């Protein structure tokens, strides 16, 4: 039986490229998308269409997560890989001043997608991951969530909502890895690099294909993968 992966935010950017590469490595990928029509158009662009399907999944709609569990359980009976990729950067243009100027609403929306949604979805799906022999959770984080880099690199962009939401995601990664240490579930956070996507922009040095290839390398390690790590192209990033 094929390995089953759920990738959130799979309709474009890194999520689509992860889907593309994992289907070529023998995974069946369920593409979590907010908008079914746009998701189907993204699915249509895949070279390996038969190895993927689309599931409506809005990270802000936590009430729908038990239904996501039920659908996955009914169709596949297990989940081998969860990639928490969906994310937003809503204060990218506020940068340095965003600690002062960001609205409570924007801060909350950022955390709803980048943190609370991920925590709720992951906690819902852990029982299904435990039915796999080589389960893994990959949280797509950012070096902008590294407190070490924020403290030591003056050039690190200061986008308050995004930085803090990814720092919280990193802390969750460590907690979950600790909690699941006696199980086969590998839990890691990954910094993909600065990548040309809608979020990363055209000035970014990395193509999505290159950034995703190193994440796929980690995934393909299966039972030999590390757990509780924050990684960029196979190297540790300081938390
Ligand atoms: P994009 O902006 O290109 O894509 C973001 C994805 O997240 C889209 O698929 C979008 O779906 C989805 N999304 C946003 N909000 C929700 C929601 N409420 N529910 C479900 N899906 C949602 O970003 P990237 O591909 O660049 O980013 C992917 C991940 O990588 C993010 O977590 C980001 O923080 C991280 N990252 C990216 C970097 C970069 O340089 N690009 C650098 C470091 C980290 P929709 O199409 O419906 O809007």
TrEMBL record:
<dbReference type="InterPro" id="IPR036291">
    <property type="entry name" value="NAD(P)-bd_dom_sf"/>
</dbReference>
<protein>
    <submittedName>
        <fullName>SDR family oxidoreductase</fullName>
    </submittedName>
</protein>
<dbReference type="Pfam" id="PF00106">
    <property type="entry name" value="adh_short"/>
</dbReference>
<dbReference type="GO" id="GO:0016616">
    <property type="term" value="F:oxidoreductase activity, acting on the CH-OH group of donors, NAD or NADP as acceptor"/>
</dbReference>
<dbReference type="InterPro" id="IPR002347">
    <property type="entry name" value="SDR_fam"/>
</dbReference>
<dbReference type="InterPro" id="IPR020904">
    <property type="entry name" value="Sc_DH/Rdtase_CS"/>
</dbReference>
<comment type="similarity">
    <text>Belongs to the short-chain dehydrogenases/reductases (SDR) family.</text>
</comment>
<dbReference type="InterPro" id="IPR045313">
    <property type="entry name" value="CBR1-like"/>
</dbReference>
<keyword id="KW-0521">NADP</keyword>
<keyword id="KW-0560">Oxidoreductase</keyword>
